[in-house]
Amino acid sequence: MADSPATYHLGQRLGALLSPGSIILLEGDLGAGKTTLVQGLGAGLEIPENIESPTFTLINEYHSGRIPLYHLDLYRLEPSEVEQLNIELYWEGIEVTPGITAIEWAERLPYQPDDFIKIGLKHQDDGSRLAEIIYPESLQLKL
Ligand SMILES: Nc1ncnc2c1ncn2[C@@H]1O[C@H](COP(=O)(O)OP(=O)(O)OP(=O)(O)O)[C@@H](O)[C@H]1O
């Protein structure tokens, strides 16, 4: 979408480039733009559905694009639920169904996966956002 925030466009680019098995860890405060970035990912993966944060389920799955997208939001989960999910995801789930996994509030994960891309989003005083690709390469982008 042409009038979407730059955060969306960053996600869209990533979605067009990523291959199955990629894990995107998203960090940042309320309203920083994590869901917006995942919506862009969905567009880059050519998923026609609207992407919203999972509220009543642990994972929203989309299988209608080029590659499956798994969208998680850890905000409302208890630490024990996060830990259980963490174990299932990294040692069971992803191996079976390779797709793109995007995790909001990833700072809550007790274990990091072996291979991932970590992006932090921050509010700026002028209303824009600062995106920092924290891993694998430190890089800051004003969005
Ligand atoms: N680069 C940007 N510049 C200005 N506004 C932006 C930018 N990126 C996202 N936004 C806007 O910020 C608002 C909040 O975004 P979003 O819901 O994606 O945040 P979030 O991090 O997922 O929040 P939460 O943690 O509450 O789920 C949206 O209205 C979105 O359009």
UniProtKB/TrEMBL annotation:
It comes from the Bacteria. The keyword Ubl conjugation does not apply. GO terms for cellular component: cytoplasm. Pfam families: TsaE (PF02367). SUPFAM superfamilies: P-loop containing nucleoside triphosphate hydrolases. It is found in: Cytoplasm. GO terms for biological process: tRNA threonylcarbamoyladenosine modification. Keywords: ATP-binding, Cytoplasm, Magnesium, Metal-binding, Nucleotide-binding, tRNA processing. One of its GO terms (molecular function) is metal ion binding. Belongs to the TsaE family. This is tRNA threonylcarbamoyladenosine biosynthesis protein TsaE. It comes from Lyngbya aestuarii BL J.
